[in-house]
């Protein structure tokens, strides 16, 4: 009887140990999956959560708003004309979220449509009445800085700049206020297409690219490729785009230039931009340019060629949306200077 009891105990110990080993392997596999996770908008290995909901911020690009704060940490920045020849940014954040972003400016329909397409919480400061109504009608999850103006929690007016170029988003409060408004603060995202590491890119040399939204040389945008970093640096005229506090330059792995139909819709010079129909595009990566097309696929702006997605280089991306008339060949200049 004692021998039987001893055998039963031994079998039980072996079974428990086996279960423990399987449990540990499962945990190791989960950890391995986490280590292999990548951020949806950059393709870079994740060192934190990947289910935090994206935040899309309207960032001012008026000369009096430069240099900006927080742009270097955006995963994707869309640059489009607002009024006149001055562009405005929609900066998408998920892999990183700086403490402060700004200055923040007012809403436009084509910006919040993009934010919704990427399933991001849209943050802006102010909007015309008809824009507010459109956001309500479309169910845009948004935080309006004019309702939190200089509250010291979500927004702060800085004294070193004058309004309307001095309203800065304090990001620590975003998700708390979003939850109070009933918005989701987590989400599951499908990754953009990305190249494998060290994959070769076929195309023509593009070490220097100029995007001329205006004839004013100070408003011409330049991207200059740096061999040492494998990224493009951005300039507004002769002024390099850097972080205000640290003077850290913006480093961009993908410059995606797309042409789209633009229309002026009111006496204030506001525009409508067609970001649904697709069109011609340039994609700059590793100092090389590809002539391709773009499509809006499930709300996201995707590079395509022969109906197949063209992958991004892992890293940050800037998307310049330019008027279809006069188009890429007139607005964009590629040179080796």
Mean pLDDT: 90
Query: From the structure provided, what is the oligomeric state, counting identical versus distinct chains?
Result: single chain
Radius of gyration: 24 Å
Distance from first to last alpha carbon? 92 Å
How would you spell out the order of helices and strands?
HEEEEHEHEEEHEEEEEEEEEEEEEEHE
The geometry reads as: globular
Please tag this protein with its features.
23 strands; 337 residues; twelve-stranded mixed β-sheet; alpha+beta
Quick take:
The protein is an alpha+beta fold and 337 residues long. 19% of the residues lie in helices and 32% in strands.
Fold and architecture overview:
This protein is α+β, with helices and mostly antiparallel strands. It contains five helices and 23 strands. The strands form four sheets. Strands 1, 2, 3, 5, 6, 9, 15, 18, 19, 20, 21 and 22 form a twelve-stranded mixed β-sheet that branches. Strands 10, 11, 12, 13, 14 and 23 form a six-stranded antiparallel β-sheet that branches.
Question: Strands, helices and their partners?
Answer:
Blueprint: H1 2-36, E1 54-59, E2 76-81, E3 87-93, E4 100-101, H2 109-117, E5 120-124, H3 129-138, E6 142-144, E7 155-157, E8 167-170, H4 174-180, E9 204-205, E10 208-211, E11 221-226, E12 231-236, E13 239-240, E14 251-252, E15 254-260, E16 262-264, E17 271-273, E18 279-285, E19 288-297, E20 300-305, E21 308-309, E22 317-323, H5 328-331, E23 332-335
Parallel strand pairs: 1-5, 2-22, 5-6, 15-22
Antiparallel strand pairs: 1-3, 2-3, 4-8, 7-8, 9-19, 10-11, 10-23, 11-12, 12-13, 12-14, 15-18, 16-17, 18-19, 19-20, 20-21
